[in-house]
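Sample intake sheet
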Amino acid sequence: MSQKQTNKTLHQREKMLVVARKLFATKGYEATTTRKINEGAHTSDGLLYYYFPGGKKELLDAILSEARDKRTAAIHTFTFTPVTDLAGTQSEIMRFFKFVWATLIETENYQVFNITIQEKTLLTDEQTDWLHQLNLLILEQLTSFLNTQRPCLLTTADVIPIMAQNLVANLQATIFTNLVMLDRLHLPDEKWEELNRRISFILQKN
């Protein structure tokens, strides 16, 4: 197969994934037919089953798998800036939390987020566990940063994991309330300020 044919193949497959992801997120898995996917992607039924022999379910599996890998890679790109005081530590944590929020509300991630919530009964435990795995990754990176900040936090190593867990729990609450319950993609300034106050309280009480 020539490079041109390979690129065309990848483009056709990607078009089907993009269209299916949008339809699954907005219309629901059951209401989305392969005909609607082909109409949106300008492809044929034969071509869809060529790339995805399992039909809609294989498309769904591919969407969730690829999104999980991209999210993980995105979170890994964040780098904390070294700081030497409490105010700087708090600022860096807020910057990290805003980065996580921005990652979650990117079109592809938000669509997958909705699919996971709406179609939970269709998914395997592994597919629905991505939020838990994402939280573990966030916790890991935050714990690592806090350990470097122990001199200005005036705390001991055994307190750091608890501090990190409390911080992540507050981020989770913000995400659940605003993204899941209120379907709010733009977090108002007062909500960020509220989260910032919680961060400050956690850092100072430990």
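Comment: The CA atoms of residues 4 and 139 lie 43 Å apart. Residues 3-26 form the longest helix (24 residues).
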